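[User] At your convenience, examine this fold.
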Amino acid sequence: MIKKMLLEKVLLKALSNGADFAEVFVEDTFESKIQLLDRKIKNSIEGNDFGAGIRVFYGTKAIYAFTNNLSEKSLLAAADAVSKADAGKNEILKIDLMSEKVISPHKIKIPFDEISKSEKIDFMRKIDNSARRYSELISQVNVNYLEKVQKVQIANSEGVFKSDERIYARIAAYSIASKNGEMQTGGDGPGAFKGYEFFKSINPQKLGEKVAEQAKKMLLADYAPSGKFPVIIGNGFGGVIFHEACGHSLETTGVAKGASVFADKMNKQIANKCVTAIDDGTVPNLWGSTTIDDEGNPTQRTILIKNGILKSFMIDKLGGKKIGMESTGSGRRQSYKFAPTSRMRNTYIAPGNDKFEDMIASIDFGIYAKKMGGGSVLPGTGDFNFAISEGYLIKNGKITKPVRGATLIGNGAKILHKISMVSTDLKYSEGMCGSVSGAVPACVGQPSIKVDEIIVGGRKEK
């Protein structure tokens, strides 16, 4: 991508006004997106985005600039700009980049360019047809296809010089069921760090039926009750609550500013003893995995909470400097247009020892939130509300009828203490996580968990 001698020259220029640290992040990304809507291809967009970002540290102050012109003149101009943003006393007269081979555990079997676009579109149409055949109540289907190949090169003034390639594949399907002016949606968006073999592992008919079934079931469901009672939060995307209400508060992005409820809780009990939470970027071919982070550090498996005790934060280089801790390989960014910061990768509550059937049997009256939907969180407090996209009433220890229109309302730090049972059925779900360094692929996950008490917003009395 960029030759070693030029990278060394750019780094020296960035350090020329006394900065403590300098870094260059180079990227060349190819992305292809196809959208099928109203049985027609509405969008088919593909192309390359390439450029470089240059960052310097003056103590714990970071300066960042980027350019999509990779000529020597443009790179040196960007380096000059960040160097002049402040002044320091550090003197580095020579940089020796030490090239290090990155060995990826993520095996790619079928490159995207070996498959014709017509085959990819045919795959999408099978999902669309299957969803529409499932029920006459299905009024709309939307299918989105993504393939992405990101090549990066990272060099810094400490001698780091690494290259990496990330391959992403994802298919997202949504259906709308309509009746008498009412509508309900079903959706799923599996993805992986894989080539086209990922799409071959997906049964398009089953995916279409799955999203149609969810939409139809919720359309015909009764409204959920409101009140404060136990809830079983299902596995997979149920982990979005931990991700949003707790995970972001464990990133040094907020911790270093004192803007996290967990900032002073290291080695203290912050959850029930049955809760262990992990952020793991090392799982082969998982959507949120990487081989190295966007600062060139090896990806790690980080235990955040162990048996209810806070054990670690998710730490990037700058965040680590601010709180006096080493990086956990959590520095991530959407592209060269963003400076990296601490981010989640595959973040999940670890499996427990309880059986799902026992969890249901332990509840006289409550809700089984089989699948969670979108929601909102106040980052400073962890207060949240999340919609249940597929829910069921629990009565006398049994799952009874489907219910819709339910919302879970609570606080991330408090809900951790109210988790009393954790099942064995760990599952991951894929999504895009947004923060100050852009949107990055991330998995949420958990086994089914029992929350002893939480506010449920619904339209009916208990």
